[in-house]
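Fold this sequence, please.
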Amino acid sequence: MLKHKFGPIENVVLQTTAVATATMPLAAGFVGVIPAMELMTQKDNANGPVILTAKQLILWSLAVAFFGVFFAIPLRKQAIIREKLKFPSGTATAQMISLLHEKQDPTIENSTLRRRVGASAAQDRQEQERLLGSDDFESVWSLKLRGLIASFSLSSVYTLISYFYPLINTLPIFNWLTFNLVDFRAWEWYFTPSFSYIGQGIIMGLPTTLSMLLGCIVGWGILSPMAFYAGWAPGPVDDWKTGSKGWILWISLGVMIAESCVSLLIVLARTLIRLCQHKTQYHLVGEEGAAEDAPSDQQISILITVVGLILSTISCIYLVDWVFGSDVLPKKMTLLAIFVAMFLSILGVRALGETDLNPVSGIGKISQVLFAGFIPGNILANLIAGGIAEA
């Protein structure tokens, strides 16, 4: 039925398609920018909330869906082939695919040559057995598969149970520890045993998760009660407008924007220094050596990249203009937002490759800060520019 057997490369294509489809709501701003437009008041926008129709949402998605894809093509060679950034989550995915197809762990391969595997499954298995030994190969593969099935089953069962019994997602363990002498639940202190976040914590590692835990303690254990008792946020704790939940948001935004700006500047400086140091080496090695990671029929030509980038940029400009109008965001400002997004994407890819954290929120906030200076007082234009940068 298939021209080729379903191997690792086909699995990568399938995985890429699934991830791109699943992350489109985030990339197109359906969980951030679009809801923010609908929550605007007449104080924020003269026409009140902006509620897009289904047709407008589709056009907005088409506007922001393509230019980032084409701009990522030249970044691949720099970030993955030349600098060999780790991309921990991508490495974990490669390990999973190698496990499913009984391939050698790609993280311990000595060769960096990537080739289209045309051998049969039996030949691949024999090759791996020669490398690891028959007994070792079977035991390692079986152990990984059992671990995958066990963790998948446990997470699935818990998620299904929590759907019918939602109370297990809000366990007031701090009230239990203090025998209800202090109502921590009223301050939004409870435990949600989410296995998906446990999995993310395993990948992210201790330093990052400790920082998040520290932020939780400072924000919800110190700043939230302080804002309430000082009268800065007298409303209910979980209220975004009058409660401490909305008040500490501005503290977190200030910290994130400052950290993002400084981190991105550091990444930019390191990139420029590295490029200057290795400029001679790149000339000696040449572009041909960097292009040997895949066969020529799997390479994307410069012509396709440039033409695709130009066409996707033009379509973004006119589709955004059609959805929101030139009076909200002029065409030149949309073009500027795309250029800003492209510049920030370079730094975002490096941050993701080095730390496994995608600074999409910080990148969007930096774009919003910039456009607050370009178009002061226009909150809607600010949100649109942030949405383009996040995409």
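The chain has a mean pLDDT of 77. Residues 170-204 form one domain.
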